[in-house]
Amino acid sequence: xxxxxxxxxxxxxxxxxxxxxxxxxxxxxxxxxxxxxxxxxxxxxxxxxxxxxxxxxxxxxxxxxxxxxxxxxxxxxxxxxxxxxxxxxxxxxxxxxxxxxxxxxxxxxxxxxxxxxxxxxxxxxxxxxxxxxxxxxxxxxxxxxxxxxxxxxxxxxxxxxxxxxxxxxxxxxxxxxxxxxxxxxxxxxxxxxxxxxxxxxxxxxxxxxxxxxxxxxxxxxxxxxxxxxxxxxxxxxxxxxxxxxxxxxxxxxxxxxxxxxxxxxxxxxxxxxxxxxxxxxxxxxxxxxxxxxxxxxxxxxxxxxxxxxxxxxxxxxxxxxxxxxxxxxxxxxxxxxxxxxxxxxxxxxxxxxxxxxxxxxxxxxxxxxxxxxxxxxxxxxxxxxxxxxxxxxxxxxxxxxxxxxxxxxxxxx
Length: 413
What we know:
- By secondary structure, the protein is an alpha/beta fold.
- The chain folds into 2 domains: 40-280 and 329-412, CATH 3.20.20.140; 282-327, no CATH class.
- The protein is built from 17 helices and 9 strands.
- The strands form 2 sheets. Strands 1, 2, 3, 4, 5 and 6 form a 6-stranded parallel sheet that branches. The chain has a 3-stranded parallel sheet with strand order 7-8-9.
- The longest helix is centred in the C-terminal third of the chain and has 29 residues, at 384-412.
- It is globular.
- The termini are far apart.
């Protein structure tokens, strides 16, 4: 009897050990649809890391004005130099940003401080970072293995209603102007405000013409639909949407309708897909609409604190009041890219993440996750040459087109 009992224990523990072993070696499941970087295919890695990966909107600039070090790896935020290298991100437009409620001489002064911070970064790291003003500069930086650093100004309020100030920004290297941010300017309506001008005023149209002459891209992210159509009509150069996604998938007013995307592309422009979770996921967008009034009150409450500190606080307080928000997956980014490509072709789609500007979807926690996008597009059947266009070459082509229009306009006078 003892021998039978001993045999029973031996069999039991053997089976238990096998079950535990299988459990330990089973694939781990998580709440995110992310593909771990080590699961990205060798072909995707080769394609991605041989490409120019150029992001047209990153909000890290204010950190350059603090003790924060670009060259050090951080555990907060979405980018720094080590993580850019890990994710293959080798070009970016530093956003020159401040709220649209900051106007007048203070807006100009603060904008100059941010521009100076980008210049200083490039000056301090000439072996790693190259300040770029032209498409040719971006290509050269990529050949030399340097980060292509460009600047985009997020909001026409910073020109202080002055074309000479706009010219000064262009001389300092600003290569796109977002006509509005989240509130109207004195000359253009924003998507985040009540219509005041019925699009662009006469001065607003002069701003678009001057941007064309200067070779600075007209950026229509954040503008009202009517402002978009006015800018499209006035501009002789193709336009950029530096960080917008597709309204057909998620109906955020910051996103573009199919009709707008088609018109943008017909003129040679590029829509740069935004990654912010509440912009790309329809369920999460619906939640943000439900909580909008409370969110605005909290933003006012914490207005003097850094954005990366404020946002977790706001999310926690909203969840306590309204319940936890839906979770958005990084795969929504690919969905928006694919929708735009199917709509207008591969030559008119790029990347404008809004890294460091808000909350990212699950699986796109920072720029190290970027190879997943390349891997997903390959799995969808995209050609490597077309993926390279989306990753950065479309943006460089657009820059070159805008420069060409500028040269023609200057010669005509």
